[in-house]
Structure formats: C-alpha cells, structure tokens
Design brief:
This protein is mainly β. It contains four helices and 23 strands. Strands 10, 12, 13, 14 and 16 form a five-stranded antiparallel β-sheet that branches.
Length: about 325
C-alpha cells in the first residue's frame, strides 16, 4: 500500500531521540510490545517524513525501535502547508511495511497529527542584488559606461527552511544591450533547485564608436574623412562595428546613413575590391605585349575571384580574375 497523496513535498528527519522512552511513571511494556504516541502537531523540516517525526515510540526491542523511528511515511507538505495524518493510516502503514500488527501495538497520544513544513521568505533585495551584479558585470565588458535601474522589485518568494542560494543565469551568447533587460535568478535551498525569478532592469549603455560625419547614400564607399568618433547608445539597432583605429577599413554603405548614425553590421559592409557596376582596369596580353583597358564589372567579388567584365566599347563579356582594388586580369 502507499501513503496518502497529501504527503508530498520536503521535510526533515527528527533526531532519534524524539522517539525516546516514556516517563518514569509509564506503564511497563511486555516483551515485543510497542507503544506509539502520535503527536497532535509535528514539524518536518526535511523532505522525507519518518515515523519518528510525528510520534514518540517506546519499546524494549532496540532493533524494532530503530526500524520504527526510521520508517518513511512519505514526502512532506510544501513549505508553509499543513496536512493531517490519521492514526489508522499510520497503523496500516506499519503493518504493511514492517509486519508489526495491531496485537503488538499500543496507541496513545493524539488520534491524528497535523504535520507542517517550516517556511522562510526569500529576501527580494538579495534577489535584486544578485541580478544587478550579474548585469553590471556583463555590461562592463561591452560598454564604456552604463546606468542600470530596476523596474519593480521582485515578488516575495516562500521557500522551505534551509540555506538559500542565489545564482544569475548566464546571458545568451548572442545577447546585445537593450533598453529593457531581464536577468533570471535561480533560487535553491540546501543545493536543491526551487524556482527561477525574473528581475527586470532599465538600461542605458554607451561606448565610443565610428559614426557618419555627414549623410551617406546607399552603396557609397566610405572614406575615413566621412567618419568621426562619438559616444553612441548601444540599445539602437545593431552593434557598432569595431574598425581599425583610423577608420580606414574599406567599407560600403548598405543603406542611407544619417549624420551621427553609428556604423553597424546592418548598415555597412566591407567594401569588395570590385563591385558590380564598378569601372575597373582590365589587364590582358596580346602575345608578348601587355595592355590595359577600361571595363565594367558585371559581378562583384574578392581578391582572386573570377568575375565577368565588359570592355568599354561594348564587346562581349569576358572572364577576369580580381588582382587588386579596381583591377582585374583577363583569363587566358
């Protein structure tokens, strides 16, 4: 048989001494007899409830008292909850698990035991402090300065008795700073996970980045004189690009840029040595003679790639290998 479903969440095993003998005036027990006094109220501060948690046990049989005290009754009620255990339920359980029948048991004490699990409140300030510290460390590695303000305190949390442990979950690898961010804090008691609490923050984060000094049109090559260094707010769309110190890395705009807009992976890309529509210098050979001409690139590509080009006079397209910025070499 199994215990009733009401015994279902954590509780502590009381010390064996709680099952100790009776008083000097207690009635003598015959050999093999067991007296069980059920307590009217009992506390189970560990997850597993045993008979010794809810009853005082007296017998002359040392082996029997150890088995009875350690007899598991089931999982304790959740923190702060209270359940009732009937004497007859306990008697049936003892008979089914230990084979000790009614002829050997003498009952005293209460007809039923009200069992509760001690509870404690998690401090919302501790949860908020744990989340804030994790977010500040994360932002410090990605920005030059930032401000963090909590958006409402975390709700109070009822926990089982024990040592409370708080740990912020790592941020996703692709996470970027945003104006509103949530930190998830795992709450455990005595090493056992209880639940996860979300903590929200309003975030302002900034760093130095390259921005367009003047408006830039779509597809324009971006020269160093078109850029300037400025502190930008990181919550805007895209992450500011890390560019060589002088801003001379070859770039091309993917869409129009406003003056002061930060360069990101969304609005600029590395400029190709040859882009479709560029006029390039085409090198070709005629016997031992090396010649050059002007051609239009019909495809874009990187160094070493073969693209189609057409001479300025409108001849048929030819294949050419890109050998430098704006320069291609006709294939044999």
């Amino acid at each position: 048989m199994s215990m009733p479903r009401q015994f279902v969440i954590a509780a502590l095993l009381a010390a064996l001494g709680c099952a100790g003998g009776g008083t000097a005036a207690a009635q003598e027990l015959a050999p093999g007899q067991v007296e069980i006094a059920l307590r009217a109220n009992a506390s189970a501060p560990q997850r597993l409830v045993r008979l010794g948690d809810v009853a005082t046990i007296r017998t002359t049989d040392l082996a029997a008292i150890r088995r009875l005290v350690d007899l598991p009754l089931g999982q304790a009620p959740r923190a702060g909850a209270r359940v009732v255990l009937e004497r007859q339920t306990v008697a049936d359980w003892i008979r089914s698990r230990l084979g000790i029948g009614g002829e050997r048991l003498q009952w005293s004490g209460s007809e039923r035991s009200a069992l509760s699990s001690p509870a404690q409140q998690a401090d919302p300030a501790d949860i908020e402090r744990t989340a804030r510290g994790a977010l500040q460390r994360w932002l410090a590695a990605r920005s030059s300065r930032f401000d963090v303000d909590s958006v409402g305190a975390p709700a109070g949390l009822q926990l089982p008795a024990g040592r409370v442990e708080l740990a912020a979950r790592p941020f996703p690898a692709n996470q970027q700073p945003a104006t509103r961010m949530v930190v998830w804090v795992d709450v455990a008691v005595d090493g056992s996970f209880v639940r996860t609490v979300p903590v929200s923050f309003a975030v302002d984060a900034y760093k130095q980045a390259w921005v367009a000094a003047t408006p830039v049109g779509t597809g324009a090559a971006i020269a160093p004189q078109m850029l300037e260094r400025r502190e930008v707010e990181l919550a805007s769309r895209g992450v500011p690009l890390e560019i060589d110190g002088d801003g001379s890395a070859p770039l091309r705009s993917l869409r129009p840029l406003r003056a002061g807009e930060a360069l990101t992976s969304h609005n600029v890309a590395a400029a190709l040595p040859v882009s479709r529509g560029d006029w390039v210098t085409l090198q070709f050979s005629a016997g031992a003679v090396q010649m050059e001409g002007r051609a239009e690139a019909l495809q874009g590509g990187g160094l070493g790639q073969v693209v189609r080009v057409r001479m300025a006079r409108g001849s048929a397209p030819v294949d050419a290998r890109i050998v430098a910025n704006g320069r291609v070499e006709a294939m044999p």
